[in-house]
Amino acid sequence: MIPARTGSLENESLPELLRPLVRDRGTGVLRCSRRRAVKTVYVSEGRLIFATSTDPDDRLGEMLLRKGLITYRALEDSVRALQVGKRQGTLLVENGAIRSRDLIEGVMEQVQEIIYGLFRWDDGEYEFTPGDLPS
Q1: I need a labelling partner for 20 at 20 to 30 A (CA). Which of 2, 26, 75, 135 fits?
Q2: How many angstroms separate the CA atoms of 19 and 14, rounded?
């Protein structure tokens, strides 16, 4: 099993962090933080399977708007409805703003953009916690 690690992204780049995880088929959660942004990458048996971010630019709705897949009105409506407890993508599908296929492709692209964005970070902190992933 890959050991837990913490450190600075000034001293270790994302590729240097990911290389042993991929090579040794590690499983766990890599959390990177910089200023107020936190990006979390979920790794399962050496594969990057999901990512989340607190950066507003990484939000699904904003990304779909930038790509022209939804209108600003659909974005606003989905944001207002988030208080109900549903996920934004589900709301957009239920309201007919996007198709289920668009949601799946959008989430895949969102995850890729979050991870790609981490490659540009040259400062901040990281923490890798090995073990089973949360459900």
Answers
A1: 135
A2: 9
Tell me the C-alpha distance between 111 and 81, whole Å: 23
Rounded CA-CA distance 121/131 in Å is 25
| Coil, strand or helix at 98 | coil
For the chain, the farthest-separated pair of C-alpha atoms sits apart, in whole angstroms, at 48
Instruction: Name residue, tokens 């042993």.
Output: 20
**pTM for the whole thing?**
0.85
Residues in the chain: 135
H helix runs in 1-135, sequence order = 14-23, 60-66, 72-81, 88-94, 100-119
Helix 14-23 and helix 100-119, axial crossing angle in degrees, nearest 10: 120
pLDDT tens-digit map of 61-96: 988 998 898 999 999 988 888 776 778 888 899 989
Nearest to 47 by CA among 30, 31, 61, 70: 30
Q: What CA–CA distance (Å, rounded) separates 113 from 109? A: 6
Torsion, Cα 46 48 49 53, to 10 degrees, reads 140
